[in-house]
Amino acid sequence: MFILGNFLYSVAHLLEALITILYWLIIVRALISWVNPDPFNPIVQFLYKTTDPILAPIRKFMPRLGPVDLSPIIAFFALYFLKLFLVSSLVGLATRLRF
After folding, report:
1. pTM for the full model?
2. Which of 22, 40, 66, 71 could cross-link to 58 by cystine, CB 3.0-4.6 Å?
C-alpha cells in the first residue's frame, strides 16, 4: 500500500504546484488589466488562454459592478479552498496508506 500512498502524495504536491501557478497567473492577469495591454502580445494571449477557463464560468454567475471585475477574487477563494481541502486531504490519505 505504500506505493499507492507515495503516488497520492506526489499527486497532492503536483496539484498544489498547479494551484499555485494558476493563482499567480490570475494575479498577473488582474494587474495587467489595469494598464490596458496589447491583446496581440503573446504573453497577454497566454494569460488570457490559461485563465479564461477559470474566470469565464465565474463571470456568468456574478453580476458586473461597473468596470470592476470580481471574478479573480472568487477564483482566489476557490483555489485557496482547493489547496487547503483537497491537497491536505490527499496528503493525509497518502500518509495513512504509507504506514
Report:
1. 0.85
2. 71
Cell of 54: 477559470
Which pLDDT tens digit goes with each residue over 10-39? 999 999 999 999 999 999 999 998 888 888
C-beta of residue 98 within 8 angstroms of C-beta of residue 9: yes
Between CA 29 and CA 55 the distance in angstroms is 11
Q: Are 4 and 90 in contact (CB under 8 A)?
A: no
- What share of residues in the chain are helix, strand, coil (percent, to 5)? 80, 0, 15
Which positions ≥6 away from 98 have C-beta within 8 Å? 1, 2, 5, 6, 9
**Residue 44 in 3-state DSSP?**
helix
**Structure-derived torsion over alpha carbons of residues 60, 62, 68, 72, reported in degrees to the nearest 10:** -80
